[in-house]
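Re: beginner question about structure tokens

> Can someone show what the tokenized structure looks like for a real chain? I only ever see the sequence side.

Sure, here's an example I had lying around. Input first:
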Amino acid sequence: MAASPMFPLGSVLFPAVPIPLRVFEPRYLTLVGRLLDEDEPEFEFGVVLIERGSEAGGGDQRAAVGTMARLVGATAGADDLLIVGVGTRRFTVERWLDDDPYPRAELSMLPELEWSEALEPLRAEAEAVVRRVIARVAEPESDADIELSDDPVAAAWQLAAIAPLGEYDRYTLLKSTSMGGLLRQLIDLTLEAEELWTAEEGI
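And the corresponding structure tokens:
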């Protein structure tokens, strides 16, 4: 089983969602440099949520499920790199290897969530709930009006990404085993978040 370069972060990455990263730690600069230097590059690295600990310096506790990111852009700064990745496939970490020269792990890819036209009413409900709650709790320059992909699977993941949820709720969504389960949990978690804000506002 081949080792994949890994990027533990304090946030969850979903498939079909872009992620901008400012890379300044030497180990991650090495990681990106090797991706760019490959003769037949795949330009992919794994992203996992740091459940406990810091993004910098190692010693963190990392989630078992993550998302591969395809590197689509890299711009060099004075002492850092600004890169953009796009989520592709989800995976389970089978085994972490040592972090020398950067975090690496052996991964098993998870199956894609399957779409059925029978799920369209649930998807439409999820979109309506997410957009309504975003418009209520977020700043005017929010994601409430963001345009979603025409692909229903990609659109479901994009809804999960813009929903006003904490990272542990996002991680719950990332681990979904069916499209129906993803959409139902997305609705439930978004409504729960709205209830919390309502309670805090004393409305």
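Each token stands for a local structural state, so reading them left to right follows the chain. The mean pLDDT is 88.
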